[in-house]
Amino acid sequence: MDRGQIASKVERVRDAIPAAREALWSLPPGRGVSSTLSPIAALYEVTHAPRCGSLVFWTAERIEAGRAEVADDFEEWEFDEPEPNRWAPVARCENATVYLHSESGAVAVTSADEIKAGSRRLRRLAPGLFEFFDRFALGPEYPTITMDPSHMAVHTGDEDGWLGLLESAGCFEQRELRHLQSQWDRRFSRPGSEPPRAWVDAEPGDTEREFARRLSRLSTAADRAFKKPARLEKWNLDRMGIGHYQGASMTVKPPMTQDLWRLYRMHSSSAYGVLQFLPDELVYERTDRLAEAFEACGIDPVESDGWLAVAQYHGKATLLLHADSGEVAGLEPAPARRLRTFSRDLFEFVSEFGIGRRHGELCYDPGSRNQSRDARHWVEFLESNELI
Predict the structure, then answer these.
(1) Residue 93 gets which letter from DSSP?
(2) 336, 364 contact by CB (below 8 A)
(3) Distance between CA atoms of 9 and 41, rounded to whole angstroms?
(4) Using CA atoms, how far apart are residues 47 and 181, in angstroms rounded to an integer?
C-alpha cells in the first residue's frame, strides 16, 4: 500500500465520519512535522495525528518525549527485547500501546492484558507503518490491536463503531472479516489428541474401504521392496516418494475434518510418488498461510477461506481439502497459477491419484519433462507390483 493509496483511503473514511463523531474520530489534513522517525513524518504528511476509532496517534512532540521512557518500561515489565531504545511509542488503543522500530520501521504492540498474562515481548503487527495503517487503523484487522488472536478469542462486535464505519466507507468487505475471523479462531483453538467420538465410531463408506484395500496392497509391496535392496535398486527414490503407510494420531483442532483424521489414522504423512502428505503440524502451519499462497498465484486471498493445506505434489503445488464440502483441489504455482478441482471425496482422490493411473494428472506444467518423468516413474512402480 503506497502513499497515494493511503491518501485515497483516508479521504473516503474522512468523508464517511458522521458529524456526531467528529469529536472522537478524526483524520486531519496532513502537514509537515519534525521527527526523527521518518515513517511518522511520511504518514503525518497524509493525515496529522489521526484518531481512528479507539486508536489515537500521538503528536510528534509527544512521541519524542515518550521514547525516553521505553527502556524503563520494558525493564519494569521484564521484557526480553534486545533493543529497547530503538522502539518508540506512537499511538494508544484502549489499554494497548503501539510501537514503531526506529531502524526497521516495524510496528508492534503490547497491552496491560498481555503483560498480566505473562507476555515478555512486543507482539509484531506489520513490517511498516503504512501497512499497519492500512490493515489495522483503516482495515479489518483493527480488533487485533488490542486482542491477541493466539491468546484470546477476537470479538468483532464493533463496540466502538469504527469497524462499521470502515466497512461503509468501502475499506473492506464483510467476507474479508469472516475470513480473518476463521483464521483468528484457529490460532486461539487449543489443540488436542482426542477426536470427536462420532469420528471414531463412523462406519467407513465405499471410498474409504476401497482406499484401505489399495493401501494394504501398496504397503505389502513397499515392504517387499525395502526388504530386498536389489528389488529397490531399479527405482530412483529421488524421483518418487515411497512410504511409510502406517497410521498415527493427529492433533485435532479447527478446521480438521473427519475424513482427514480418518485418513491419517491409516497412513499419516505418507508419500505416493510425487504426492507427499504433510505432518499434522505442517498442515496447520501452511493452512494459516494459505491466503499468502493464494495471492502469490494471482487468486483473491479471501478464496482461501475454508481450505486446509494437506499435502504437496511435485514439490511446489499444494493439495487442498475443503473443510465444509470435502472437495479436493490443487493450488498450483506458475505456469499454471490456478486452483484446480480433483475430486469431491478425499479417499477417492488418494485411491485414484495416489495409488492409481491418474497420478500423471498431477503434472501442472506441460513443458516440464521432470514432472512427466517423475509421475511416470511412480506409475511404473505401481504396474510392476500389479497394483494397477
Answers:
(1) E
(2) yes
(3) 18
(4) 29
Cis preceding linkage at 151, omega within 30: no
Task: Outline where 145-192 has alpha helix (H).
Answer: 162-168, 174-188
Whole-model pTM?
Answer: 0.58
C-beta neighbour count of 30 within 10 angstroms: 17
pLDDT in tens, 315-346: 999 999 999 899 999 999 999 999 999 999 99
Residue 29 burial (C-beta neighbours within 10 Å; 0-12, 13-18, 19+): exposed
User: How does pLDDT run across 176-186, given as a tens digit for each residue?
Assistant: 888 888 777 76
Closest CA to 139 of 147, 131, 129: 131
Q: C-alpha 35: how far from its chain's center? A: 35
Q: What is the DSSP string of 272-289?
A: EETEEEPPHHHHHHHHHT
Alpha helices in 228-279, H assignment, sequence order = 229-232, 258-267
- Rounded to whole angstroms, the Cα distance separating 84 from 89 reads 11
- Asked if residues 70 and 79 have their Cβ atoms less than 8 Å apart, the reply is no
Q: How many helices (H) and strands (E) does the chain have?
A: 15, 13
If DSSP states are collapsed to H, E and C, what string results for 308-374?
Answer: EEEEEECCCEEEEEECCCCCEEEEECCCCCEEEEEECCHHHHHHHHHCCHHHHHHCCCCCCHHHHHH
d(CA 151, CA 328): 31
Query: Are the C-beta atoms of 5 and 133 separated by less than 8 Å?
Result: no
